[in-house]
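Entry 14. Structure prediction run on the chain below.
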Amino acid sequence: MARLLAPGGSVEMAVGVLEAGAEAVYVGPIGWSRRVSRFELDDEAIREVCTYGAAKDKEIRIAFNTTPASSEVPAMLRKVDQYVEWGARGFIMTDPGAIAAVRRRHPDVSIHASVAATIINEADIAFYRDIGVTVVVVPSKLSFTEVREFKERLGVQLEVFLHSNHCYTYLGKCQMSSYFNHRFAETDEHKQLFLGSPNRGGFCHRVCKGEWTWSEENTLRDESVTMPNIAILGFNSVPAYLDIGVEYLKIQGREFNLSLMVDMVRFYREVIDHCLTSPRPISLSRFQPRLLGLMRRRDEEREDRTQALLQVAVEDAPLPVAGIVD
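Output returned:
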């Protein structure tokens, strides 16, 4: 049975999406999960979510999908031990060494290979499976045919996105933000952060969404360069994903408004239940008006946040930058 996995950018969001119909929620410890700290949780908040999840028989997934330095691995493992003790039974991770260390330490937990691992082919899946991964997060760029073949041939659980984005590159591989923000910081627990890189506890500044030109040898080649970064909703693929046995249907969005995420979870809960109880072929036409409303709200929030992030990129850039912000 497919489980609806939703974001927990706060305790209120984690509880809200579970009450709205998600079977699982993912949260991130401060400094460890590819988001700015206001969308991550401190340990007491994570404990509260774990306690609530246990009481409601819900799955709690903890994201450790940054790349730890060698000196940070012991602290990461101590946190993992603590969260397992509190009832967490799954982790979302990227770094192969960290994954292997957690698997050796906790053979019974579920480990999701994060989309930041950029798993795009069968050899990638086989590698992560062999070091202890139980669930592979499939990049949203891959086609349904590729997802189906992974499911049929490789014997791993899959997690696919219902709400995410098509980046012009692959998530986890982009370095553009690090050219604009060279600042380092430290959490209250002394975790080192490089603010220009989501892989090191910073965040994506979405500079690909700015206004770019292309010049070569002082000659303007193109005055309007577009780097695609498009938000997607996997609405139409839900019946097919259910038919091939995908285990997790994921909504991404810890940084979005609480009410939008709760409404989106409630919407997809109804869509999934409709698909599970309806004869084939399935019609989703009655859901279209609500989908359009959710898309409009999502796009408005995303654009506002994109402009704010671009402004931060301009302010933090080591050299003067002009023209990338509307």
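The first strand starts at residue 3 and ends at 7.
Filed with the rest of this week's runs.
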